[in-house]
């Protein structure tokens, strides 16, 4: 089955939260790659998006690491309004995993 958002292939065994995260990360990576303006922390955003993608591909992302990556990405590209919608989608996807356990 193909999803219309990002045309990501969905398997019956993948956690839907992981699917949403992979779709959102893919979209932001594409939009960032196509964004013509350079900015100082672009490399940080690209590295953290790659880390999010790898965590999602593993199927069992660590919530504290997801949140740390999200904060770094937001800090790196937060002022680039053209990427705001895709960044919001990544935040929503990370939020699907809930809060990390407190201990």
Which range best describes the helical content: under 10%, 10-25%, 25-40%, 40-55%, 55-70% or over 70%?
Answer: 55-70%
Instruction: List the quaternary state of the chains.
Output: single chain
What low-confidence regions span 5 or more consecutive residues with pLDDT below 50? 1-10
Q: What is the overall silhouette?
A: globular
Largest sheet: none
Strand content: under 5%
- List SSEs in N-to-C order: HHHH
Give the C-alpha Rg.
13 Å
Number of discrete helical segments: 4
- Strand tally, please? 0
Describe this structure in words.
The structure is a single chain. The chain is mainly α. It has helices at residues 16-34, 42-58, 63-77, 84-95. Helix 1 runs antiparallel to helix 4 and helix 2 (42-58) runs antiparallel to helix 3 (63-77). The radius of gyration is 13 Å and the shape is globular.
């Amino acid at each position: 089955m193909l999803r219309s958002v990002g045309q990501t292939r969905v398997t019956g065994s993948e956690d839907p939260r992981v699917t949403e995260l992979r779709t959102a990360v893919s979209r932001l990576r594409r939009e960032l790659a196509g964004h013509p303006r350079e900015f100082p922390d672009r490399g940080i955003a690209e590295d953290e998006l790659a880390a999010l993608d790898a965590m999602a591909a593993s199927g069992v992302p660590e919530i504290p690491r997801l949140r740390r990556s999200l904060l770094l990405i937001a800090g790196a590209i937060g002022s680039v309004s053209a990427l705001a919608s895709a960044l919001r989608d990544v935040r929503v996807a990370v939020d699907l995993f809930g809060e990390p356990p407190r201990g």
